[in-house]
Design brief:
The complex is a heterodimer. The two termini of chain A are 37 Å apart. In chain A, the strands form two sheets. In chain A, strands 2, 3, 4, 5, 6, 7 and 9 form a seven-stranded mixed sheet that branches. Chain A has a two-stranded antiparallel ribbon with strand order 1-8. Chain A is an alpha/beta fold. In chain B, 71% of the residues lie in helices and 0% in strands. Chain B has six helices and no strands. In chain B, helix 2 packs antiparallel against helix 3 and helix 4 packs antiparallel against helix 5. Chain B is globular, with a radius of gyration of 21 Å. Chains A and B meet through helix 1, helix 4, helix 5, strand 4 and helix 6 of A and helix 1, helix 2, helix 4 and helix 6 of B.
């Protein structure tokens, strides 16, 4: 019987790996063509009812992108300059020419985040967040990376490993970054980290140029976290 | 009984897969300490307490890098310098901005545009 559990485990592991068996090169070819180095985080577009959500995501997005080996422009200084230039409303630039950002900031990429919804269920103390990340080239205006993310964040006590393979999988990730303080900033950190996990790496990362055959997720990612 | 064993196997498999995937993504480049939380609290409530806390964290990030690159992460010198300048410490702030450009030459366009405004 022990043997059959082991076999089942191997098969399940293989299934999970196969289900995200797309390679990074196939999933995000434009990133490999454009070879961007410099990223500018645009203030998130907040279509949700939670007016505070914008700051949670803006202040936590530079770290995971820098950890992927890219140069991310200083968010505090950029925030002030964007405000002064009346370029704070990112929605105006979502489909517009981005060349002026290349000139003023020296950026290769503008990172757009759209917070589509932030719903709190009062019964289960869950938060459901729907997000979209779009990286656009500030040189060619091409879309380089897109990720839709559906995050279910539960208070620690209500998290159960039973949400299917993906749920169990991301619970492991969430456990690793779990901290004692219940705080929405941590929810944003976990969402950003998980949603960008398979982003191709840049020049400061030791795997730069070697990660094209690594596995990638589909466009939609389901994330389960606790806070 | 059979069903629960299968469930156990599936869960074990998922953990195995997670370990395989995370082992590919576990290289950490920089030490950030509480930077994300402290930066958020500074944006949310720009008071002396939060400013002091953020400045302490910038100093720690600059002084203690323990991860694989062993250098200060992108943007830290520049943001620290910018905040120092905003708080009247212009000379010290400019020094930090110069360090950003030295470590990350790709920041030159943006840092240059900040310096032009200060003059």
């Amino acid at each position: 019987m022990k043997k059959s559990i082991f076999t089942q485990a191997i098969v399940s592991a293989a299934l999970v790996l196969i289900s995200c068996a797309t390679t990074k090169m196939d999933a995000h070819p434009a990133m490999y063509d454009a070879k961007p180095e410099v990223f500018l985080i645009m203030p998130p577009i907040n279509n949700s009812d939670n007016v505070e959500a914008k700051d949670y995501f803006y202040t936590t997005l530079n770290v995971p992108i820098a950890e992927h080996g890219y140069y991310v422009l200083p968010p505090a200084a950029c925030y002030s300059v964007l405000q002064r230039e009346s370029a704070y409303d990112s929605e105006m630039f979502l489909e517009a020419d981005l060349e002026k950002f290349n000139q003023l900031f020296g950026t290769d990429v503008c990172v757009f985040t759209i917070i589509k919804s932030w719903k709190k269920s009062y019964l289960g103390s869950n938060i459901q967040i729907e997000l979209e990340y779009i990286f656009r080239s500030a040189k060619t205006n091409d879309v380089l990376f897109v990720r839709d993310a559906m995050a279910v964040c539960s208070t620690e006590s209500s998290v159960k490993v039973g949400g299917g393979l993906v749920g169990a999988l991301v619970n492991v990730v969430a456990d690793a970054v779990k901290t004692a303080v219940a705080d929405y900033v941590k929810v944003a950190i976990q969402c950003n980290n998980s949603a960008l996990l398979d982003m191709p790496v840049g020049k400061y990362h030791p795997k730069h140029g070697l990660d094209g055959t690594d596995s990638a997720n589909g466009r939609l990612m389901n994330i389960r976290t606790s806070y | 009984m059979k069903k629960s064993k299968r469930k156990l196997g599936v869960a074990f498999g998922a953990v195995l897969a997670a370990m395989l995937i995370s082992s590919c993504a576990s290289t950490k480049l920089y030490s950030w300490y509480d930077y994300q939380e402290d930066y958020y609290h500074y944006v949310k409530t720009n008071d002396k307490k939060n400013l002091d806390k953020l400045i302490k964290t910038y100093e720690k990030v600059i002084a203690k890098q323990k991860e694989s690159r062993g250098v200060v992460p992108p943007g830290i010198y520049a943001d620290y310098g910018y905040i120092l300048i905003e708080n009247g410490k212009t000379a010290e702030g400019k020094e930090m901005l110069a360090k950003e450009v030295e470590l990350y030459p790709e920041s030159k366009v943006f840092v240059g545009s900040i310096l032009k405004r200060i003059k």
